[in-house]
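Suppose you are handed a protein chain with no further information: no name, no annotation, nothing but its sequence. What can you learn? This example shows the usual starting point.
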Amino acid sequence: MQEPRPAHVGSAPRAATDDRPATESGAAAPPPARRRLWPLRFAPGLTWRPAFSTADALILLGLAALVYAGARLAFRSPQVVAGPNISLEPRALPWYALLSLGRMAVAYLLSFLFSLAYGYGAARSRVARLVLMPLLDVLQSVPILSFLPVALLGLSAVLPAGLAAEIAAILLIFTSQAWNMTFSFYQSLTTQPRDLVEAAAIFRLGPWRRFRVLELPFAGLPLVWNSMMSWAGGWFFLMAAEIFHVGTRDFRLPGLGSYLQVAAARGDLRAVLWGVGTLVTIIVLLDQLVWRPLLAWADRFKVETVEGREPPSSWFLEALSRSWVAERCTERILKPLSERVDRTLEPRPPEFVAPTEAAGSHRRPWGVIAFVALLGMGAVYGGLRAVRLLETLPAGAWGEVGIGLLATAARVGASLGIALVWTVPVGVLIATNRRLATVLQPIVQVAAAVPATALFPVFLLFLVHLPGGLNAAAILLMLMGTQWYLLFNVIAGAAAVPQDLRDTTALLGLSAADRWRFLVLPALFPYLVTGAITASGGAWNASIVAERVEFGGRTVATAGIGEVIARATSQGDYALLLASTLALVVTVVAINRAIWLRLYRMSEERFRLE
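A reasonable first move is to predict its three-dimensional structure. Written in structure tokens, the prediction is:
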């Protein structure tokens, strides 16, 4: 593990504005005059680059065009939509839970496949990276709760209301699951140990075998932890996904989320407890039957020369390993299928395999260029139409949007700071103390998965009378929805530290402070950046449900961009909805480029296992 060194020691990292991974070709990068430990300071030799590029402008234009097209379709949607009645009887809960679990599973499968394809394309192709990474920045910054009404009304104009609501619900859950998994997989690919990459080249592993043998196993442990976080994020937005109001239109789906939302809206504490109890039961079962076995299985892929003293275990995985049926399925089905896939995708070893990027990545992809050009022209046309819609917005509304951005930014910063204070020590403790993890891990999963939106109205009854009122309550809801992104990434980072490095720090007699300085914090740095970027994006998204709350027929609101978006949605004010959504996206992308992207590059250059 590389560690920070004083400014006068060693060579400097490559310029933070360089898009290439560190020493991809094996040649040393030209050092600038001085070594900088903090990437936001400009050193001699560093080239300044604006936060927004041409690709960003086209992506934002495309987003504006998409929102505009959805708004135009929304005018043709049915004026009155009434969903099915949601029963609050406990006997309805098993069926509702099964429906919600099915939506979560479909959204997770789509998120997992998207993360692998998107992360691999961005990490392995310089040309694709120029488009995919700015696009990912924008996608994870889009407040899906502001985009959902446009998508929902647009789909309902061409599809039956029930099918449109199902697709929109899966889309919302997908967006709450995909981004942190994609960032995690991309971070794993860009921080692989160079000796393993060179070994793959020596053994002449082609793209498919290198992906299956090296890249996916190396990313396995972080992917499992981020998958757990993705499920928790899906539960958080489940209530918003299964019931959505747009003016007189009431889109609702039977499910556990709609059960909890109806119970909270009616103030039925008994039904809320039944719903939360069912949710907790599902979470515990998933922990024992899915996540704990996956963690124990993925632990074998850690990069270490000494096995951990207390490797994770799972009674269910041990039972499967002794199962005659599982053994026969593996021998007769899984192994032959894996070998057939290997022969199909990579029939023979290639002559030469580049150790970093796939062959042909430097060729000009004319088909991709033509497709992007067509999309660009469509985005420009739709963007111009969206500008005309924005021209109808009064000047006072723009001032309201600006004030809302500042207020929400302060709450996001406060929630992120509070989360960092407690998630780093607790996450390290869970990852390094197996006995304690056995107790705390299920508790953390339950706490992360229980949708704060179900309990928030109850907390609001008490918090609204305290100093700070809804401001403090909004920060609390943002914290409850986003702190888990940091915690799960910290646990994944601390669990990935090889046991031999821990033993080395013990043999050297390093103090606790030095151990954190030279081992723990450098090891956590890439994971902290991944967690922080997804947590901050989640906090901005959570502002839409945190700054405007309806409970028992009463509406409580505070100034913020989330409140503006929620109000525009309920009133069907598409011009204000478009303006506030674009303003939020531009703000979040600018923050990502000014802070998080530079820290991402720093983690690729300075903090990787070697």
